[in-house]
Amino acid sequence: MAAASQPKYDIAVKGAGSKLGDCPFCHRALLTLVEKKVPYTTTLIDFDHKPQWLLDVNPAGSVPVMKDLETGEWIVDSGTIADHLEATHPDPPLGTLDTSPQIGLDVLPKFKNFITSNPEEAAAKEAELEACLRGLDAHLAASGPYIGGEAPCATDLAVMPRLYHMQVATKHFRDWDVPAELQALQKYMELFMVRDSWNLTHYSPELVVAGWAKHGATKI
Ligand SMILES: N[C@@H](CCC(=O)N[C@@H](CS)C(=O)NCC(=O)O)C(=O)O
After folding, report:
1. Catalytic, out of 23, 26, 132, 153
2. Confidence band (pLDDT; 50, 70, 90) for 220?
3. 107-115 and 154-174 helices, crossing angle to 10°
4. Which residue has its alpha carbon closest to ligand 1 atom 6?
5. Closest residue CA from atom 5 of ligand 1
6. Residues 76 and 111 in one domain
7. What is the 144 CA–ligand 1 centroid distance (Å)?
8. Domain count of the fold of the chain
9. CATH number of the domain residue 163 falls in
10. What range does the domain containing 113 cover?
11. CB neighbours of 55 closer than 8 A, spacing ≥ 6?
């Protein structure tokens, strides 16, 4: 899979066969490459058969990891990859997470706590998720349509994959929808999901559901 000829990097991401896998961190790194129009190739890592080279490069065994094909340098972790790309390919400027609005990132632990909660704690976890989404909606309503304003910033590329997981997993496991009155948030997700970068990098809802089922999400 190549974004253009003369790849500059090869990025290893979760996947199997020819399909991208359900990793929001890999998704963030891929979105950054595509938004910056950096040519790359992709190596898919089947988590049931992790290659030894991945463990040599990153003893944690996690992806994404990205190799600079000119220098041979490995860049490990989605945040480090995003910062590296910002430094080496400043156009279009996305900023770094540190310099971008600090909002929305905690949607991942919030929805994870909700979809893995037991019946006694579900209402409280739902309320915490909703509060997090309301904060993001208020930011988008005031200074959107993206978290970065008129154009996506580094935070958008980290948050959108998490929101996708949230949307799919809460619907499947809890028959829950983002409250309809959070219109700026609804519009934001729709707007992002028609970007070329999203179309080139997204994976199916079925993979998201299967992934969270493995991580303890249940229907109650
Ligand atoms: N902090 C890392 C986290 C990456 C991460 O946790 N990736 C998961 C997939 S979503 C992984 O590779 N897990 C290894 C495993 O489950 O064996 C980053 O941002 O890149």
Report:
1. 23
2. confident
3. 10
4. 62
5. 62
6. no
7. 29
8. 2
9. 1.20.1050.10
10. 107-214
11. 61
